[in-house]
Amino acid sequence: MKPILPVILAGGSGTRLWPLSRALYPKQLINLVDRQTMLQNTLQRLNGLDAAIDPMVICNDEYRFMVAEQLRQIHVHPSAIILEPVGRNTAPALAVAALWAMRNGDDPVLLVLPADHHIQSADHFQRALTTGYDHARSGRLITFGIVPRSPETGYGYIKMGPPLSRDDNPGTAVAIDAFVEKPDLETARGYVDSKAYCWNSGMFMFSASKALAALETFVPEIVAACRAAIDKGTADLDFFRLDRDAFSKSPSDSIDYAVMERTENGAMVPMSAGWNDLGSWEALWQVGEKDAADNVVKGDVVLHDVSDSYLHAESRLLAAVGLKDHIVVETSDAVMISPRDRVQDVKGLVDRLKMRNREETRTHKRIYRPWGTVDQLVSGNRFQVNRLTVKSGGALSLQRHYNRSEHWIVVRGTALVTRDGEQFVLKEDSSTYIEAGIAHRLENPGKIPLEVVEVQTGAYIGEDDIIRLEDLYGRHRQEN
């Protein structure tokens, strides 16, 4: 049996789920439905799939440490985490996956899955994958279509052709008659009523060699750029970093446009597994657990006369009166309110915020680092107060700042401090002062998380006022 290599596409920013999803903390890395993140759920629904081997994850360079940590939390050991220096859509990602998978003469079946899909029935999902695997082994290029439950205008559709004969391969699969763009509502109703169309899920399955051959036939310039990006790429700790110049020369294209709409070897496996791509707050309301008034409630929320709404509180009490069919999302630095039938306009709202260079589109008050987290508590003229949480064994880089000084107060755990060549231990309720220009490092030698209140003071406290001298995570090499 050919092994199945899951290829998890973990790029993208999910702007329609702002203010939870942001450029540096996108929806695939957030626990939107349950306690697991979307990435973790994507991987865990593959548990028990015959022939599946350790997955490959392709993601944005800036997500690398969050991705690695989330895999570690669920005890997944990836075969590779490949870093894209720029976004180029799914066809170049597939080319990279196929080239990488075949570099040692192997030819696994690639199972290409976006990291941000919600699927209610893992059993139905795996049955569809088994069918797709049978056809992929025989040389077909498989896409998975979702049997529509309603006339959605936010998805592309695939028109089903005739069933594949059993002589071709066992199981339920159909030829692809046509790919169609996102329709208007009346057209979508016609598609659903005809029972001849499926939603386009963006999930695929094919052998690496067949995928690469199709790419070389239809988009050879993409393959050439991706081959060069791998040849000139570099290993960096547990990651592989594609060469920026080479990868940037690749055209940006989707698997659908580049291959599936042009090949005569494509087929579709229809799937009914409770699929949703969670592309909007309305989608989260649809899949969420509802109370007696059909509200989906997350966090510290108190309601009076509210119905058919989604209310999410991150950092404080959220109280609402007299709402119907609304979305209210609160984070520590932003509140978003929208009627449920206007949630597709959130992307336009984010575009306006980007035009104003609002930092709220990029990151949260909580910032994830390879060693732990930084919570920005309060800032003002010439000062900022943070809470640092350093995981066991974690260490900040050996660094210096030229424009700010830092005061560290240990509130939990034990800190090992390096300051101007001297090392010493700080226990709970003790503190130290790091003067501007002094080389320093903070480490957690203990078994419990280290929590430190950091007070930064100075004429300039921007994050770019940092010179990394040494770093366990290789960030000083990228900066230099």
TrEMBL record:
Transmembrane segments: none annotated. It comes from the Bacteria. It catalyses: alpha-D-mannose 1-phosphate + GTP + H(+) = GDP-alpha-D-mannose + diphosphate. GO terms for biological process: GDP-mannose biosynthetic process; polysaccharide biosynthetic process. It is an enzyme of class 2 (transferase). InterPro entries: GMPP_N (IPR049577), Man1P_GuaTrfase/Man6P_Isoase (IPR006375), Man6P_isomerase-2_C (IPR001538), ManC/GMP-like_b-helix (IPR054566), Mannose-6P_isomerase_type2 (IPR051161), NTP_transferase_dom (IPR005835), Nucleotide-diphossugar_trans (IPR029044), RmlC-like_jellyroll (IPR014710). Keywords: GTP-binding, Nucleotide-binding, Nucleotidyltransferase, Transferase. Its EC number is 2.7.7.13. Residues 299-353 form the MannoseP isomerase/GMP-like beta-helix domain. GO terms for molecular function: GTP binding; mannose-1-phosphate guanylyltransferase (GTP) activity. Residues 357-471 form the Mannose-6-phosphate isomerase type II C-terminal domain. Residues 6-292 form the Nucleotidyl transferase domain. Belongs to the mannose-6-phosphate isomerase type 2 family. This is mannose-1-phosphate guanylyltransferase.
